[in-house]
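User: I'm writing a tutorial on reading structure tokens. Could you give me a worked example: one chain, its sequence, then its tokens, then a sentence or two explaining what the tokens reveal?
Assistant: Sure. Here is the example chain.
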Amino acid sequence: MTSYNVLIVGSGGREHALAWKIRQSPRVDQVFVAPGNAGTGADAVNVDIAQDDHEALIAFAKSNDVGLVVVGPEAPLVAGLVDDMQAAGLKVFGPSRAAAELEGSKVFCKNLLRSADIPTADYRTFRSADDAMRYIKDRYSEPNDPVNVVVKADGLAAGKGVVVCTTRSEALEAIDRIAARKEFGAAGKELIIEERLTGPEVSVLAITDGETILTLPTAQDHKPAHDGDRGPNTGGMGAYSPAAVLDEQTLAEVESGILVPVVHAMKRARRPFKGVLYAGLMLTPAGPKVLEFNVRFGDPECQPLLMRLQTDIVDVMEATVDGRLGELDELTFDPRPGICVVMASEGYPASYDKGHTITGIDAADAMTDVKVFHAGTGVADGKVVNTGGRVLGVTAMGDTISAAKLQAYKAVAQIRWQGAWCRKDISDKALTAAQ
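And here are its predicted structure tokens:
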């Protein structure tokens, strides 16, 4: 059995969960994370290299017996880190720059979905704020006229470039923020206005080598900041797996009507997809429809999924890179549900203070079936401090959703820092669906 070192690129909760899971493989000698956070520094070895410094990452991998590189976040994937590393002779898990455009450009994604006849919301694309505003004004005459649209920045905006609008004035304000004021930078060079779909949201993640598709257990994210799905959108305030809102028959429909066609469409477009394919779906009265595609593990969906995964993840990643995923046995998962509760900094998703000392992580980690995954943390004067908006992903498992939720929030209660907060209703949708 060949063993080697693994380099994970990124610094969030997803990357900590990946480091924790990869470290469990008997085939791995050492796990490096660049640049990492306080949690990856405890569970692996942090490397002080930014995720956009391709040359330095390649040089480190070549000089440290790195046999597999795992690129966690979307930004380096869209920037072509996988291509650069492969050109340097490294084995890398993740899609190419061309394939990553499925997430890097919502316009590209929507056009691909339309051409492949994959169900999604009706939409229009715009290159200027004036044209988009004219489109809204032509259809709604009064400021408080009810509208039913979603305004989306074309490019990457850390999960925040999507605005759900219920009035004409909200739609115009969203267009102004994205396309005129460029609140999300270059991500707003184009925008999409699409119909607002209704129904429960669910995430279906699959691992594919471009030929074989291995669908993972379902998960449900909680994007809005506050309980009851109120407040502004965030990068995700918590998730649970499996998602009770998606039954086996509907999952089979998603596989045959969405996942398989999109993998074929990417192949036809000469952008073969290898890595994690993440479908964000709305379960509408007319059936599942695609809200978005991501090209990596979701964060925080990754945390409960990897906590449940029992198959050696390194075997799966290697087979994906080598194009032999079809040779693997079916993946095995702990049948118990898992829940991740995100603890955030005061003010998130707007501005927030950093540098507050965090206590109680060790006490939470010591609890049965609990793991605290770090996202926006660092170390100052030997103490763990908050450095980001989403700070920790407190993840727990239990025999039932209710038991997992209770254990997760007991662990949350152990942790303190100035201004810490979280949603209190993560996974309640599962109980509602069951009823």
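What the tokens reveal: The chain has a mean pLDDT of 94. The chain has 15 helices and 22 strands.
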